[in-house]
Amino acid sequence: MNTQRSGGRRARAAKRANAAERAFDAAWRQWKNPYAPIEQFSADEIEAIHNASLKVLRDTGIKVLNDEARAYYVQVGMREGKDHVIHFDPDVLMGLMAHAPSEVTLHSHNPARTVTIGGRQVGITTSAGSPNCSDLQGGRRPGTLLDYDNFCKVAQAFDVIHFIGPVVEPQDIAMGLRHLHMTRSIAARTEKIPFVYFRGREAIADSYEILRLAHGLNHEDFVNTPVSYSVANSNSPLQLDELMCRGIIDAAHGGQMMILTPFTLAGAMAPVTIPGALVMQNAEALAGLCLSQIVRPGAPVCYGSFTSNVDMRTGAPAFGTPEYVKAAFASGQLARRYNLPLRSSAPTASNAPDAQAAYESQMSLWGALMGGANLILHGAGWLEGGLTISAEKFIIDVEVLQMFAELFKPLEVTEATLGLEAIADVGHGGHFFGTQHTLDRFETAFYSPLLSDWSNYENYRDRGAVDATQRANRIFFEKVDAHQPPLMDPARIDAIDAFIAKRTEEGGANIER
Amino acid sequence: MNTQRSGGRRARAAKRANAAERAFDAAWRQWKNPYAPIEQFSADEIEAIHNASLKVLRDTGIKVLNDEARAYYVQVGMREGKDHVIHFDPDVLMGLMAHAPSEVTLHSHNPARTVTIGGRQVGITTSAGSPNCSDLQGGRRPGTLLDYDNFCKVAQAFDVIHFIGPVVEPQDIAMGLRHLHMTRSIAARTEKIPFVYFRGREAIADSYEILRLAHGLNHEDFVNTPVSYSVANSNSPLQLDELMCRGIIDAAHGGQMMILTPFTLAGAMAPVTIPGALVMQNAEALAGLCLSQIVRPGAPVCYGSFTSNVDMRTGAPAFGTPEYVKAAFASGQLARRYNLPLRSSAPTASNAPDAQAAYESQMSLWGALMGGANLILHGAGWLEGGLTISAEKFIIDVEVLQMFAELFKPLEVTEATLGLEAIADVGHGGHFFGTQHTLDRFETAFYSPLLSDWSNYENYRDRGAVDATQRANRIFFEKVDAHQPPLMDPARIDAIDAFIAKRTEEGGANIER
Known about the structure:
The structure is a homodimer.
Chain A: H1 2-29, E1 31-32, H2 43-59, E2 62-64, H3 67-75, E3 79-80, E4 85-87, H4 90-97, E5 104-106, E6 115-117, E7 121-124, E8 132-135, E9 139-142, H5 145-156, E10 163-164, H6 175-189, E11 193-194, H7 201-215, H8 219-222, E12 229-232, E13 239-240, H9 242-254, E14 257-260, E15 265-266, H10 274-295, E16 301-304, E17 308-310, E18 317-318, H11 322-337, E19 342-345, H12 355-370, E20 375-377, E21 382-383, E22 388-390, H13 391-407, H14 415-418, H15 420-426, H16 436-439, H17 442-445, H18 457-462, H19 468-482, H20 490-505
Parallel strand pairs in A: 2-13, 7-20, 8-22, 10-11, 12-14, 14-16, 15-17, 16-19, 19-20
Antiparallel strand pairs in A: 1-7, 2-4, 3-4, 5-6, 8-9, 17-18, 21-22
């Protein structure tokens, strides 16, 4: 009798815990930002920045180093000046930008992990593009495919990660083959939206082919189904190089999302004033984004913001600074001015997964999210201005991301949540631990941390005073060990492997053009 | 000739640096938050919380354990029920609250350090009330007067600290004498606005007398000049104890600022729902604040918010959680509902000055500041839910506070800051390091960090890979060593010392009533 009751309680508790987990998952998988964005500038000031960037595009123009791209621009009425400079007609430009979609849905090969960005909707990526990786055991070292795989496995473990970047360069794989193994690893080990590098026509085509096979799509459906994202960085100031133009054109043809992110570090590649750096960011973003819309009106694109400042004593880039936050707030206003999704980031210049890394990344993240960003690149793992991805920093960031996913869940104000009955019942003194109002809700009432240790000092000390960075290290490798590859039809994996074998035999991709 | 030119350059550079420092100081000494506050609830939802708290005050009431306080309430028409419970008439209550000022100016004995809170204006305090202190050298230990003095010295070194809390309990001083030495130390070593503990009538009177002497004011001017602040914590749920009532009454008579902060931890002393916890916070805050306004209409007060949640598995308090941030946003809306300044905090539950301490405190701080808080208690140094003040955490927090002070400086959008001329001059490729536009601005363009290390990895490693916590330790003790006491008429110090000698001879204060 007792056993049965206790079993019933356990079953009910398990059911509640399950329901709680499902409720958490749903909100963590598709974030909706419920808060009105913070604005840095008045509407007039944003209009002044907009107009100044149109003036830059018209008068100074953008140097475009790819012949096909220049031909596209000229074809719609832009003027080619000397030295490959394209001068933009503001009306034609704005007419083209009107074709760009305000939201993009990125499809996972597991439909439950498909994610939309734009409007109030937000997606998160891992850190991307680091040559090095680090963890407490192995220190800092050039990345390998094993490291790459480990970060993929850990990314797969967390619902608050929606996109995956090229987490670390697998430097043990030849450049011409690297994209093949990176794309396969993401497709086979995760359900996250993959990144495709703009490393030339062949590498892009190879990556798209692997993703097409992973999704089991025919060629026609593939080019109408965004399943990946890429970043084109303009070569600030005011240049678009051969590979970036190539990528913008190929991504538009491929129907895959392209983010145009100017690398506008105020004081170095951009004016020392934040409004000036934003003028340049905006000019370069519009120039690249409109190329997509010429190639294929309605191509999925995203406005990229990465404006920060440098240390004026050394020229070193700085992140998570007050200037970074202001630029992030303003970039939200600019992206909304064009009705585009906004990409921002959560970077830090710290060399270690320490308190500086935590506070700088969080300054960046608050600036980005409260500015209204829809896609956070470098959301987990980034250190050293991107030169390293850190296992410990990855877990520290996931904890903060999970807190934001919870923060973004709205609170209901109802008779039940106002709790007048419970307040009257408990009265003066006393506590709420045992009330029915608490018992009905306690399992899902609050965020339960992944990394934070809320124990008292004596317990913390007696367990060895293990700090957050050390705890993060443990969690990272527990997640590596616990990894289970997501379900995928083995025939798809076989097709991918056959394709990689063929491309390897052919010598891989020419990544120069 | 060369020497002269170089001297001229140096002089000009020094002048510019000086001007830059002055410009930084001014904004750091009086913060103005330029951003519209983030709102958690609709106006209707805030009204529902307001109305629910009035219902709680009327029907369940507040247990008031001090006879004089109950007499004050009854005198204005509140009803005393059984067991010392006061039932509040909503109209009388709101009529009283209308007397409370929306801004309070707190005077320093150095007029340049006087600070106003309320509206857009924000002040920052150190951490307060910890029994323990810690640093990397000495570990965690009970506080002494030497530790207390060190934190006062370091607080004095930073313009972004405006108020000083009882940083750590000097446990080597007898309780009845402690307030004398604490108040003297703040007055003699800092120009920050001091905290006065509500530890009974005599201790409050002693503290006020020391501050009166420090300011060189006569008794009449003193009670019309806010020079200090105190916190009354209601004994949640729904109680005001003897000492807190005593303090509220004495602070109102003394013309000194009183913050009423309910200790509403959702799931423990308050309902498990955040709206329910806010109903209780609001009821308790209004009950205590209106007592001030009965004693002395127009007495300087501040609405205190500290609502957070507990870990439901252990009952341990948690801080910097998503729930904490939501409560902070909502508390801003409630304080503005009553046109009152808002006190919030930047706490963490972390046991070490590590990444967790950094990210939890920053979650709290962003929630508080973007919710529209006017006074941030525990702004620097807090660890372990307040059980310890940490030297390293103090410096980590100051770095983040300085970043916020910079963030709050507005950006001008003008022809000069849009930088079109510089952009046209630099053209495509190239950089902005050497342009006149950069040279004219680079010294004051960006925040220059106190603690953050932006060097590259090789330099960081070659200097010993000193992480943020270790660097913070160095900075803390450099500031202790560099301390210079602020200017004060020696006659005032003599008067304070004579007063302390007399009170010591009399046996100090009775801190029980």
